[in-house]
């Protein structure tokens, strides 16, 4: 997994009331977790990023690692004002050795430049000799930095085309692996230049708009697969979910199955799986409305149902199950979204029937409504052996060790911290970080 630091758009200022209000209001008795707190028996490390909350735009960002979930924080690197800054976004390599920084070209404000920094001793960053202009998207895999550059289209009939590059961060050797969108007779394909790194840490999945639907390309480390799809090229519509912090799309570690989520015909929330070898799509239905899904989803959901599926979508280590975030912003959750991490068997994603509540495992079990005892989750990762989940969410515990009060606009709504929870769904989450002045953004769980 990777870090994506969106400093300019996800921040919230730290307020004096965040500190004062932590102990000045009594909690409702219903705000207390009844499950036992997670105990950790697996040995794994956690790396995460902390962003300074005192600034809306340019702020310091710390890359931090713990050799064990309950271990000491070690600051790997700090990015701040000046160069480099994460104002426009940064991506950090999973091994924490490199940081790729997006910045505006002073000579051309419409041009985004990607620069690469190596992490030196004592957390200092050294600029490498690599930079690329007109960059639209960038992600680290386990060993490489991948990025897309906007280029003029040549005979494709598309308005935006993108060259996809692979960079070795150690040698700075780069090569172009493909151009998006591909030429396809009879199908109008469009690309935003984005992609997802697969579960194997090296393959890439490229989502493409295909008429009114969607199609995919897979790069397996050696070459590009034939076009997978399209799903709904002309006789229906499909829109990949975009409301979460990460794209709900993933390729299994054996490179055989893609899982993704979106809205079909503006009426149905669906979770799909697609077989790479046969190009056959299977799905399950999660929510259905008469028309205009976004407008009517809340009015048509049962109490246990969510209205959106967010990324990341992650596979279990044996590829038998998938994990995802279910969310809704209905009624009392319009300010603070209701989110949970769910686990579902991959074999259950077929047949097209409506999903029952007992077919999914709700791991986090956050209560609904505007309450401090519910953590609004933005992203998560699985431990190396798959027994635990680390996630980023709004804090439940204050700096004094007590449960936070439900104060509108307070820290429980604006801040984000790091949690860990077992994947069996039997335990309450354990909040690992707690700093009023800093906000956690992304994390990765790895070997010690």
Q: What does this protein look like?
A:
There is one protein chain. The protein is an all-beta fold and about 450 residues long. Mean pLDDT is about 90; it is low at about 1-15 and about 25-30. The protein starts with a strand and ends with a strand. It has helices at about 15-20, 295, 410-415, and strands spanning about 5, 45-50, 60-65, 75-80, 90, 100-105, 110-120, 125-130, 135-140, 145-150, 160-165, 175-180, 190, 195, 205-210, 215-220, 230, 240, 250, 255-265, 270-275, 280-290, 310-315, 320-330, 340-345, 360, 375-380, 390-395, 415-420, 430, 440-445. Helices cover about 5% and strands about 40% of the residues. It is built from 3 helices and 31 strands. The strands form 7 sheets. Strands 1-5-6-7-8 form a 5-stranded antiparallel sheet, with no helix packed on it. Strand 9 (about 135-140) and strand 10 form a beta hairpin.
Strand order of the largest sheet: 1-5-6-7-8
Largest β sheet strand count, sense and barrel closure: 5 strands, antiparallel
Share of β-strand residues: 35-45%
Shape: globular
Summarize model confidence as the mean pLDDT.
Answer: 89
Given the structure, what is the number of helices?
Answer: 3
Spatial gap, N to C terminus: 15 Å
Strands, total number: 31
Q: Helix and strand layout, with pairings?
A:
Elements: E1 3-5, H1 16-20, E2 45-52, E3 61-66, E4 74-79, E5 90-92, E6 98-105, E7 108-119, E8 125-132, E9 135-140, E10 145-151, E11 161-167, E12 174-180, E13 189-190, E14 196-197, E15 204-210, E16 213-219, E17 228-231, E18 238-240, E19 249-251, E20 257-264, E21 268-275, E22 281-288, H2 293-296, E23 308-315, E24 321-328, E25 338-345, E26 361-362, E27 377-382, E28 388-393, H3 411-414, E29 417-422, E30 430-431, E31 438-446
Antiparallel strand pairs: 1-5, 2-3, 2-31, 3-4, 5-6, 6-7, 7-8, 9-10, 10-11, 11-12, 13-15, 14-15, 15-16, 16-17, 18-20, 19-20, 20-21, 21-22, 23-24, 24-25, 25-26, 27-28, 28-29, 29-30
């Amino acid at each position: 997994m990777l870090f994506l630091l969106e400093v300019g758009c996800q921040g919230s200022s730290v307020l004096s009331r965040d500190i004062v209000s932590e102990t000045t209001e009594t909690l409702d008795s219903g705000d207390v977790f009844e499950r036992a707190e997670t105990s950790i028996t697996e040995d794994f490390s956690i790396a995460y990023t902390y962003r300074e909350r005192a600034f809306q735009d340019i702020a310091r960002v710390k890359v931090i690692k713990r050799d064990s979930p309950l271990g000491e924080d070690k600051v790997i690197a700090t990015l701040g004002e000046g160069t480099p800054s994460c104002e426009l976004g940064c991506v950090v390599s999973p091994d924490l050795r490199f940081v790729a920084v997006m910045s505006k070209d002073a000579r051309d404000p419409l041009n985004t430049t990607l620069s690469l920094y190596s992490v030196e001793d004592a957390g200092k960053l050294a600029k490498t000799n690599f930079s690329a202009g007109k960059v639209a998207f960038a992600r680290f895999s386990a060993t490489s930095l991948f990025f897309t550059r906007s280029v003029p289209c040549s005979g494709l009939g598309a308005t935006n085309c993108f060259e996809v590059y692979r960079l070795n961060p150690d040698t700075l050797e780069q090569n172009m692996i493909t151009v998006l969108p591909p030429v396809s007779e009879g199908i109008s394909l469009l690309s935003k230049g984005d992609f997802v790194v697969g579960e194997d840490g090296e393959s890439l999945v490229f989502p493409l708009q295909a008429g009114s639907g969607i199609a995919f390309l897979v790069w397996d480390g050696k070459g590009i697969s034939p076009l997978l799809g399209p799903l709904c090229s002309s006789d229906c519509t499909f829109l990949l979910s975009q409301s979460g912090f990460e794209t709900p799309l993933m390729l299994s570690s054996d490179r055989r199955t893609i899982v993704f989520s979106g809205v079909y015909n503006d009426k149905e929330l669906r979770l799909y799986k697609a077989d790479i070898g046969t190009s056959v799509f299977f799905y399950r239905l999660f929510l259905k409305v008469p028309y205009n899904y976004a407008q009517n989803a809340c009015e048509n959901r049962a109490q246990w149902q969510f209205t959106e599926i967010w990324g990341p979508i992650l596979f279990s280590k044996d590829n038998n199950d998938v994990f995802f975030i279910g969310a809704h912003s209905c009624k009392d959750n319009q300010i603070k979204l209701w989110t949970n991490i769910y686990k579902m068997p991959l074999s259950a994603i077929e047949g097209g029937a409506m999903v029952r509540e007992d077919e999914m495992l709700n791991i986090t079990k956050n209560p609904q409504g505007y309450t401090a005892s519910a953590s609004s989750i933005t992203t998560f990762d699985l431990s190396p052996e798959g027994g635990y989940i680390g996630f980023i969410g709004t804090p439940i515990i204050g700096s004094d060790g007590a449960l936070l009060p439900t104060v509108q606009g307070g820290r429980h709504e604006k801040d984000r911290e790091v949690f860990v929870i077992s994947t069996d769904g039997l335990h309450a989450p354990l909040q690992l970080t707690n700093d009023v002045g800093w906000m956690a953004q992304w994390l990765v769980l790895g070997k010690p």
